[in-house]
Design a protein that fits this description.
- With 484 residues, the protein is of the alpha/beta class.
- 27% of the residues lie in helices and 25% in strands.
- It has helices at 4-16, 21-34, 186-191, 199-202, 225-235, 270-286, 322-334, 340-346, 393-406, 425-433, 456-477; strands spanning 38-39, 53-58, 62-68, 78-84, 89-100, 103-111, 124-136, 139-148, 182-185, 242-251, 256-258, 264-267, 299-305, 349-353, 356-357, 379-382, 410-413, 436-441, 443-445, 452-455.
- The chain is globular, with a radius of gyration of 24 Å.
- The two termini are 40 Å apart.
């Protein structure tokens, strides 16, 4: 059994490899392939076999991995842990080129409900994906490529207190005018502009002298040539070969295990890459030993979705058919009977895993008296009578029984009646697919900050709980009778 520090150290590696949702999917893909999972593609037919392991990606920001039990037959259930790959951040606008007062700034838009004041005075860089034109043997193709500039190239400076005496009474951020990162001074950028990026690039013309189009090249009037040069250098291409991109600002400070007793994780994007990592590691470890799928009658699955922070309403979000599509295609591979998918869904179970709010010692009044999740206390089962979470008595019982069997700690959370309640992918999938669901998450502080915090012990508790779920659910579910 791995120690808490070993599991947390593995999480740190995952976090540092995943500055964006695209990179998180890429890292998950590498880990799955190393564990013997075979990549399949939604555009192609699937040839699936029992006791085998597969995964697919959608938009390269959502990934679904699954292992089919050796005793699986069409109509049997799916045992799923679902999480999300995205986190609140600032993303580059389609036209990011901003020049003010002799400075080159980068136009950004806010993504999700971030604590935007935490983005000030941080050493920032840029990461994401680009579409690159590839010319070879007289023909053109277009490649998807991940990019990440390692060193800090931007910063959002705060205003001196001497110019804003009331700032400590309330730091109010105008996200349109105050949140623009500074890239360079105009003078330095002009003096250091290479000859290959003269006015023809600034004016939108390609290097070969052909007429440029904003539709196929985001240069010229859309983005600073300096920024395009940095991105092209990372991608190993010319700035004129960059056709489009989805990029975001990222903190350059690495994730670490910290605290006087080395009991905490300090990092960005714990919401929700911590749960993504724990579920992925649990699936890999629950399907790696020889003969581990020998007696499994169901399908063990992890689904990591994009766009949870903005409502999940996208082709790759939990609100899309991606979950149902996966269940349906797997079922139909083993039987042409279309009625079996409904039977399968009623036998399935989803653990919706999204980070939870830990009790904060400086704001203890923000928690309901009898529901105060604490660090080191294990996963938190989330309850809400108004269905902001999808937990009910049956689903929470199942999750508790697994914890009790393996002596894993567990906690409960209900938001105060006088406070609004957040939500997760749980209710979206429970209502959209019709699958039994429990909402859980590891406790953390500073949720939606650029720098968040959780406990090392809870990383291990979460991983062990998810792993036990994959191993034990089939047997436990066979003993539960509800709709009789």
């Amino acid at each position: 059994m791995e120690s808490s520090s070993a599991v947390a150290a593995d999480l740190i590696d995952f976090l540092n490899a995943s500055p964006t949702a695209f990179h998180a999917v890429d890292e998950a893909k590498k880990r799955l392939k190393s564990a013997g999972y075979v990549q399949i593609f939604e555009r192609q037919d699937w040839d699936l076999k029992p006791a085998n392991k597969y995964f697919f990606t959608r938009n390269y920001s959502t990934i679904v991995a699954f292992a089919i039990g050796k005793k699986y037959v069409a109509g049997n259930g799916f045992h799923i842990v679902g999480a999300h790959t995205d986190s609140p951040c600032v993303k580059l606008k389609p036209v990011s080129k901003v020049t003010k007062c002799g400075f080159l700034e980068v136009g950004v838009q806010t993504y999700g409900g971030g604590l935007w004041h935490t983005w000030f005075d941080r050493d920032l860089t840029i990461a994401g994906r680009m579409i690159i034109r590839n010319k070879k043997d007289g023909s053109e193709s277009y490649l998807h490529k991940l990019v990440r500039i390692e060193e800090p190239i931007m910063r959002i400076p705060t205003l001196a207190i001497h110019l804003d005496r009331g700032v400590n009474d309330g730091f109010k951020v105008n996200t349109q005018s105050h949140l623009l990162p500074v890239l360079a001074t105009s003078i330095k950028a002009e003096l250091n502009k290479p000859a290959s990026t003269d006015d023809s690039i600034e004016n939108g013309a390609a290097n070969d002298g052909s007429k440029s189009s904003k539709r196929t090249n985001p240069g010229g009037d859309q983005h600073h040539s300096l920024l395009l040069q940095l991105l092209a250098a990372q991608a190993g291409c010319e700035p004129s070969d960059i056709c489009d991109f989805e990029l975001q600002a990222c903190d350059t400070q690495p994730s670490v295990i910290a605290g006087a007793m080395k009991e905490f994780v300090f990092s960005g994007r714990l919401d929700n890459l911590c749960m993504s990592f724990c579920s992925l590691k649990a699936l890999i470890d629950a399907t790696s030993p020889e003969n581990c799928l020998e007696d499994e009658v169901g399908v063990r699955m992890v689904a990591l979705f994009d766009h949870e922070e903005v409502g999940s309403n996208s082709a790759q979000g939990a609100g899309s058919p991606v979950m149902f599509d996966a269940l349906s295609r797997i079922t139909s591979t083993f039987s042409p009977d279309s009625k079996l998918i409904q039977k399968s869904i009623q036998r399935s179970f989803l653990v919706s895993a999204d980070m939870a709010h830990a009790l904060h010692p400086n704001y203890s009044d923000k928690h309901e008296e009898n529901h105060q999740p604490k660090f080191h206390g294990g996963l938190v089962i989330k309850h809400n009578a108004n269905q902001r979470y999808a937990t009910n008595a049956v689903t929470s019982f199942i999750f508790r029984e697994i914890a009790a069997k393996h002596n894993i700690p567990l906690q409960d959370f209900v938001v105060r009646n006088d406070m609004p309640c957040g939500s997760t992918i749980g209710p979206i999938l429970a209502s959209g697919v019709g699958i039994r669901t429990v909402d859980v998450g590891a406790p953390q502080w500073s949720m939606h900050s650029i720098r968040e915090m959780c406990a090392v012990d809870d990383v291990k508790h979460s991983y062990e709980h998810f792993k036990a779920f994959f191993q034990d659910f089939s047997q436990l579910d066979s003993k539960i009778a509800v709709d009789i």
